[in-house]
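User: I'm curious what two different proteins look like when written out as structure tokens. Can you demonstrate?

Assistant: Sure. I'll show them one after the other, since each token string lines up with its own sequence. Here's the first protein:
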Amino acid sequence: MTDWFDEHVPRHVRTLDVYQPGKPIEELERELGISGAIKVASNENPLGPSPKALEVLPAALSQLHLYPDAGGFALRRAIAAKLGLDLAQIALGNGSNDLLYQLVLATCEPTDEVLSHKYAFLSYRLAAQVAGRPFVAAPTTPELACDVDALIAAITPRTRLVVLGSPNNPTGSVVTKAGAERVLAALPPRALLVIDEAYAEYAAQYPEVDHVDGLALLRSDRRVIVLRTFSKIYGLAGIRIGYAAGDKAVLDVLGRVGRTFHVSSLAQIAAIAALDDDEHVAKSAAHARAQLERMRAEIKGPGVKVYPSLSNFVLIDCARPSTAVYEALLRRGVIVRPMAAWGLPGAIRVSVCRDSELPRVIQTINDVLAS
């Protein structure tokens, strides 16, 4: 099979950096012979799904024999109304990652480049590589944030998509309003600026921090595409639903490469209800901010650094290889995310959890870092 693989699989597929998902908590408990493990590895909302979304799902189950609305009209109308945009400016996806893949397929010629920076979300690179498009990662600041000067220096006439997460996963850093405007001004005429705002609702709880508002930027420049998701603060990661906001001409092209019926009926119905659940959003954002502040204050160790974050996770520099830290935490029943795949071999990422679990998470991390 090795010969077949080498001979028949396209080179850009053979060399893909495969995304490695974390194991289910039940499988890890079985393997390690432990119970009561706490998972803080996937940036999920520990408060659960939007209660309003849960309320509407049972009534929809009797309609599962019908195909979903391929145009997603009801959900798109609801999103457009909430954001103050036109219906044609909203596109739906099977999570926001799905829309990023569509953007690469729909807009990039084989030699066009997708540009981001080191330590950005792995899917930016994967979306380019799956389509066989070159991916370029600009250097970051010493604090692992987007270095706008370095990013602009990396722009070439071949740059087609510039993708920036704000807040960025896994670092939690943001791009400032002025920084995003500078990147936009430096784009070649045919390029687009994609702002991944998967954690935007968390960042909105920090008005004292200067960070870009992708939707405001979109209203002033049609070259901006904003990606958002219902997976994070709305707690709907299990049914996969996200959306893009942008110029209607760009989003029309996405529909040409997307799969038919790629967003399920349950996802659309739940998202419509969740979109109106301001109480759950506010509660989840406040919960995350309080926990991040406590983790930054209480997680300590020789050489250890906890980075600031405007999301629902923190990046921790362990001052040692993170694989050993990850495995030691696993044995103690705390599941974090090691960051070697992101090019950060000494770091782990830790998501927020239930309030009842946080003391154990902090104590366990500190015990491992001190050992």
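Here's a second, unrelated protein for contrast:
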Amino acid sequence: MEFSAQQIAGLVGGTIEGNPSAKVNDFAKIEEGRPGCISFLANPKYAHYLYETQSSVVLVNKDFQLEGKTEATLIRVDNAYETVAKLLTLYESMKPKKKGIDSLAFIAPTAKVGKDCYIGPFVSVGEGAVIGNGVTLHPHVAIGDNATVGDNTEIHPNAVIYHDCKVGNNCILHAGCVIGADGFGFAPTAEGYEKIPQIGIVTIEDNVEIGANTCVDRSTMGSTYVRKGVKLDNLVQIAHNDDIGEHTVMSAQVGVAGSTKVGQWCMFGGQVGIAGHATIANRTQAGAQAGIPNSIKKEGTAVQGTPAIEFRNFWKSSAVFKSLPEMSRQVYQLQKELDEMKKRLEIKD
């Protein structure tokens, strides 16, 4: 599918500098641009690529100042990053979607499947499960008994939805993610650890995206919740009875211990760890590898480090930490000199 710069500018409300008839049929990073591709420039660090890219069209912000000659046609927009995201979404929506149930799929007699679904080979849909309209289940997906999957949700290969769990509308679950495995619940006894049955479920609300090999555990009782608009990266662990607030995002390898309530619009960098039974305020931000041992009560708090402290204090502390070896030597030297002074005073007495 091919579009001209003029057509694209019309779609995104942009203004053209260069050839309005320039044609594109693919996307490329600006540093890897090829003729016939559209790229974007949002980060000033990549500005130098604009003057050497082979891409035919480049999206730039309206206030971007050219510092040299470029062969590409520019389309100026309010926000180049947001605009390319919209174009990618449009491009993806134009791809033909598979429909139909593969002959190698298994669907239990009591399961219900909506209209315009695609159910790939070796998919298993359990007894009493409900699959909404326009759902895509890629090969080897397993949907447990009495589980529900909402309209227009896409589940990638080898993902597992355990029994009774609920997945909302317009969700994307990537390969190998597991929704509804048992929470990590064991009671210590004289003979060892006795398993506590996890009889709850997981509820995934609408417009959630869950990355590859991410796990959301079922609750001991009630439900573990991943609220609408949440985005979880690959290899994230959400423990039993957690409640992850609306539009919160978590990067790879974040771990949230059990019975923790995370607020709305929070952001967590890679490998952040959050202790159990904590409450995290709305719009909390935690830098990579932060360890959060207890609740954060103030909305909009930014933390870093382990144990996590306020972001600015962390960087001040880091500056001091670099100087600790020299400061330690100085303290020992001062202590030595002080001891010598005391000895001299004792001799005089």
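A detail about the second structure: Residues 141 and 158 are 5 Å apart (CA to CA).
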